[in-house]
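Q: what sequence does this backbone want?
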């Protein structure tokens, strides 16, 4: 049985399996007041169907060229001009989407709860091909011009031919007994297909044949119960130059050499939402709600902000000189990269902000749980 939670996995198990109504979710920390130093300006807003839906989905939009592509849980895929908000095309797939959005090399890619990968034409939204895989797809497919790479819920990596969707190869992992519901989006280079697995390992495969190149354990399950031993890599991987950054739930944040898998540094951490990188620092949204800035060379904590405890934070993103996170009540928080202090806050949508914010140049894109896609910039005095 697989679980995913917007807060702690413990709560998801209690909510699903406990017959008592006495167990209550801990209240999120109250927002602290501060003097805003910058102001966010909304450029446009569009509604994208039903958004993330009632289950825990992470449908993150993708920027490709001058368009941003977003999908909702019901199968609506929309292409929007990222500067003006003008809708270019809409396609209704009429299947439940759970892995979105991948874009590149002329394709827009989504995965479904029915275990399908669907490729659309980037210019028209017309379906190019549809391929069946082993199980539900909970993260966006990746593409490198040669193959489309998808990671399925059962810890399989499957390479599909970019032109037809035919399967080229498949790698079968060994999923943990109990895991979070979800997978991180895989990373694809010209030579390597890389993914984080539910057992706390990172695997790199040759893109041509799917043969293992290296494997590295980045978290060791600990504890007596299966719940305590969950070490999922659900937040996605971040590749910068020759370094791969990865963080696990109830495990560690680790920097790996992408060619060999050798550990360059490691630090205890617990997150289900991934990492961001900027100005020589790694930024983490921890499962507790704390946001941390860590020196990428020494692993020393540069700052820690725990004022957002239990607010179920999104993955962080680096935007201008700031770290951006969303929370369960729909607030977008901007923190200084220097010391983690709050510099701005904006409520986007009361439904919450679960998906990682997307940054493209001077533009920030936020996709709320109810499907509001908003483009923001920093207001600057002329």
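A:
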């Amino acid at each position: 049985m697989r679980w995913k939670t917007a807060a702690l996995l413990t709560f998801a198990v209690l909510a699903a399996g406990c017959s008592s109504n006495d167990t209550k979710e801990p209240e999120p920390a109250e927002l602290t007041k501060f003097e805003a130093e910058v102001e966010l300006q909304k450029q446009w807003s569009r509604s994208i169907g039903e958004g993330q839906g009632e289950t825990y989905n992470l449908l993150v939009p993708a920027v490709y060229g001058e368009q941003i592509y977003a999908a909702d849980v019901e199968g609506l895929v929309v292409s929007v001009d990222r500067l003006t908000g003008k809708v270019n095309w809409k396609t209704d797939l009429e299947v439940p989407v759970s892995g979105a959005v991948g874009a590149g090399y002329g394709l827009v890619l989504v995965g479904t709860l029915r275990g399908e990968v669907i490729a659309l034409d980037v210019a028209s939204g017309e379906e190019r091909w549809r391929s069946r895989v082993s199980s539900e797809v909970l993260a966006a497919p990746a593409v490198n011009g040669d193959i489309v790479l998808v990671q399925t819920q059962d810890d399989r990596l499957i390479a599909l031919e970019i032109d037809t969707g035919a399967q080229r190869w498949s790698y079968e992992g060994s999923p943990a007994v109990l895991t979070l519901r979800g997978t991180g989006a895989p990373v694809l280079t010209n030579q390597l297909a890389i993914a984080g697995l539910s057992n706390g390992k990172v695997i790199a495969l040759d893109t041509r044949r799917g043969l293992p190149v290296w494997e590295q354990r980045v978290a060791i399950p600990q504890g007596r119960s299966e719940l305590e031993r969950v070490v999922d890599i659900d937040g996605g991987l971040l590749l910068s130059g020759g370094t791969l950054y990865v963080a696990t739930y109830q495990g560690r944040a680790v920097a790996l050499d992408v060619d060999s898998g050798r550990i360059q540094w490691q630090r205890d951490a617990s997150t289900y939402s991934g990492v961001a990188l900027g100005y020589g620092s790694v930024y983490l949204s921890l499962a507790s709600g704390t946001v941390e800035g860590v020196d990428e060379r020494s692993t020393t904590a540069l700052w820690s902000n725990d004022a957002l405890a239990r607010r179920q934070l999104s993955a962080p993103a680096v935007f201008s000189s700031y770290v951006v996170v969303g929370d369960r009540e729909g607030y977008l928080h901007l923190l200084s990269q220097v010391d983690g202090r709050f510099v701005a806050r904006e409520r986007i949508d009361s439904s919450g902000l679960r998906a990682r914010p997307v940054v493209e140049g001077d533009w920030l894109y936020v996709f709320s749980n109810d499907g509001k896609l908003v483009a923001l910039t920093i207001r600057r005095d002329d």
